[in-house]
Amino acid sequence: MAKFLAVHPVGKDLTLEAGTPIGKAVKASLTVDAYWIRSWYVREEGKLYCEWDAKDAESIRQVIAKAAPEFPIEGIYEMEFMVHSEDFR
Questions:
Q1: Are 47 and 9 in contact (CB under 8 A)?
Q2: 26 touches 73 (CB < 8 A)
Q3: What SS3 class is residue 86?
Q4: How many CA atoms lie within 13 A of 48 on its CB side?
Q5: What are the boundaries of each domain within the chain?
Q6: Do residues 2 and 81 make contact, with C-beta atoms less than 8 angstroms apart?
Q7: Which numeric CATH code is attached to 2-82?
Q8: Distance between CA 66 and CA 71 in Å, rounded?
Q9: What is the pTM of this model?
Q10: What pLDDT digit, counting tens, does each position of 20-29 carry?
């Protein structure tokens, strides 16, 4: 499976409590073709960045559409490679 980054413009007022129902709905809707790994919220930008393992971007869109159809998606981008600081020892 490939790695993807989904970008969600959620605004600067998101709280963990407000996002929990969406997170639970997405978790319950995961498939073998799209698995949510983790997310980072950047309040300054008002965006939520979500890492996924997936067959393709469409598989991620299907999970989100089923779990939270109103949840905004700015874009879903395949990550070509990941680099860790330990790679440069």
A1: yes
A2: no
A3: helix
A4: 19
A5: 2-82
A6: no
A7: 3.30.70.3090
A8: 10
A9: 0.93
A10: 999 999 999 9
